[in-house]
Amino acid sequence: MKVHEVMSAAGIWFRADDPLSNVIDTMAAQGHSCALVCNDGKPTGIITAGNILRLLAANNASADFTAVTATQAMTPNPLTISSELDLAEAMQLARSHKQYYLVVVDVYQLLVGVVSLGDMLDAFLKLQKPGAENDPAQHWLSLEDSLTGLPNRRAMEIDLKQTEAIAKRRDESYALAMIDLDFLTRLNTSLGREAGDQALAHVASIIRNRIRASDKAFRYGGEEFVYLMPGTAAEGALIAADRLRQAIETSGFKNPDGLNGGLTVSIGLAARKGGNWQEMLKLAENALYKA
Asked: Of the listed 223, 224, 235, 249, which one is catalytic?
C-alpha cells in the first residue's frame, strides 16, 4: 500500500504572514487537526494543536492570536515524503523522527497532502490477517534490533534514503559514522557470548543517550553501528564522533567477571553534500577499516 491511498488531500494551506487566528478558525470549522504553511505551494511549516497549546502555555493562556503570524506558531521544515512511498517505510520515518504528521509532496516539492501516523496505523491494521507473520507487532520488531533496541539495518536504509533526498533538496551535507566495537571476538572467546552481548548493549545505550535529537543510530550488524548526522559537515561530524568515542572509552564498563575491562571503538567517517547514501556508507566502511 502506498501513502497516497491513505493521505488526506491538502485542501487548505496558509501563507507565512497569515494571522494565527485565521488558521485556528479554519482548522475548527473544517475539523482539521493540523494546518500547513506554504510559500508558492511548497510546504515550509506545519501547525498542530500542540503548537497552539505551547503558545497558550507560554502566554498564560492569554495569547492574542490576531497578533501572531503562522510563521511564529509553526514547526519549520516539516518532514516531507513522496505519495508513492510504501506505507511501511512512511511509518518507520514517522516513528524514527518522532513525527505524528508527514507532509506529502510531488516531484516538484509542491504540497499534495498530509498523512498522520494514526491514519497509517489504521490502514496497516486493516491489511493484517490472522497469523504471527502478519502481526503488526512483528512488523515493528523487524525494524528493531532485539539485543540493543536500536533500529536495525532495514530501518537504517529507510532513513538514509530520506536523509539523502532532504540533503539534495536543501543542498546541504550529511555525515555517516560507522562504529566498530574493538576486540568483540576476543571478549566472546574469553568470557562467553553473554559478555559480548552485554558489551554491545552497553555501547548501544551510550550511543543512544549521547547523540543529538536530530541524529539517528542503528545496529548495522555484528559489532558495528551506524551513526547518522543530518545537516552536518565533516568538521562537525568529526567532533561529534570523537566525543562519542571518548564517552564509550571512559564509560566504566565492567565485564561479567567483575573486572574493569574497558571498551574502545574504532570509527570511520564520511561526510558529503547531498551524497548518495550507499556510496557514503562504503566510504565510512573503508575509513573504519583504516581506523
From this structure: 223
